[in-house]
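[job 4471] stage=fold_predict status=RUNNING
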Amino acid sequence: MSVCVIILTLIMMGAAIDVMHFEERRARVQNVMDSAALAAADLDQERSPKEVVEDYLTVAGLEDALSEVTVTQAANSRTVSVTGASEQKTVFMRMSGVDLLGAGYKAIADERVANVEISLALDVSGSMRWNNRMERTRTAAKAFLDKVVAEDSYGVTTLNVIPFAGGVNPGDKLFDHVLGKRPIIPEEETSEESGEDFFDAWPQAISNFVMYFDTDGDQIYDVAHKIEDFPEDAPRDADEFFRGAVAYVMSRDSRLVEASQFLGASIKGGSEREFTYYQVSGDNNGPLSDIGPTLNKGKIPGETYFHPDIDFESWATSYPETEAASESQYVNMPSSCLEIYDAEFSTTALPQSGDYIPHFHYWPIDTETMDWGWCPGEDTSVQYYQHDIEALSEFIDNMRMHDGTGLHYAMKYALALLDPANRDSVNYLISEGLIDSRFADRPIDWQDPETEKYVVLMTDGTTTEQYRPVDPQAAINGEVTLQDQGEDSYYMLSEQSANVDYLMQQCDLAKEHGVTVFTVAFETSTAAAADMRACASSVSHAFHVTGDELYSAFDMIARQINNLRLIQ
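[job 4471] inference complete, writing structure tokens
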């Protein structure tokens, strides 16, 4: 009996050892197959899914366990199914007649692009010029686009790009839709020569001359042409040459056919006065400066010509005379930012006030890298429901830096553009040709099971105070910072602490509606990073980075949005 018990015990112990080795191998094979299926299902994977699976198992020495690889490919998804089987010889269990232990394996991985709506808010405040932050942001943001707006996701993934400085420019179309009102040129006492002279003599040699034109009849520029390479001895009073300049550029742009399309021009040159805008169409203050655009650097919505190539006197005979002054003549505002008041931050609606943010600059400006204005210009306005990577990349490359940091304004627009209650505004932008008609049903309903909504909010600073000029229509606001004008020239619309509260209200609303919020604090203070962490959906959704870490942060966010997941 003792011998029988010992033999039985040895068989049981041996069986346990065989099962242990078998389970170890089974777990190893299953893990390798799971990893192989995940890698093969990645929509970014350029190799054949079957080759990827085979390589995974070969490297692991388990190629004999693979039976079949099945791939189901659709326009916006890929499913990879891996099946296999393996057998292992027993050592002890064969004494009881069991020579082999076998197991079957199955791994299914799926990456699919569900309906995805993303709002990407990018800081273009003046501090972004330091430590190469703006260039790093451009590179990181474009890499992000390449990952989340893939070619096979067309029609299911949309992206809003929201540049922000002190405010957010929704663009002139949405500004008009919300009934934002442009300021009317103030009636001022004019001289007898005001009908002939529009420019005062420039105190230094002129560097460049930019002319602004309106092609859609809204009295706001949408085309600008520049003339550069003025010689030192060229006239410094633009009244002597602007007619020839305007006639010349109009002859080269088929969109420009009527006198009323020419609105005015800006001059840049020297350090005494760096840039100034002068209204011409409907001007009623003579050669005094006016509020208007000063796109004398960076990319302009038009062409650049050169002074030596133009015979100004000859072309002046073809100059189309402008319209007389009119009481309804609006200021040629260089941007279209809407005011957002306290109560609006408790909702997810688009701005409703209809009041405009005046054109001004508060802090000192670096004219080589920044454009004038608390509100970004039309060239740095919101890009809606885009899927054209090339166009978006070009836009990001050409974003201009401005004054202030209105994080709460950025978050307001980012969330509103995900709110299904704002479909009417989206449909309006579709009718204006700014959004593809296939997105007429966007934004999709909150909590839709087949839709994911994301906000990615990136900044290098903290929410600043909101300042405003006492006289919003004064032309000096387009040339002299409010600080340099003196304390009597401006007031504080809202304090920093209140603006942080408004930001948090919007962040909380996003979470309540199931929107995933990622935040990126780029070379900010500890306090600013804490605000961004509080705004994010969780600590793991918040990034506090420096230098080239920004690229990794955007890459990790893109990968989470793409959400490769094992489904069996």
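[job 4471] summary: Residues 189-193, 564-568 have pLDDT under 50 and may be disordered.
[job 4471] exit 0
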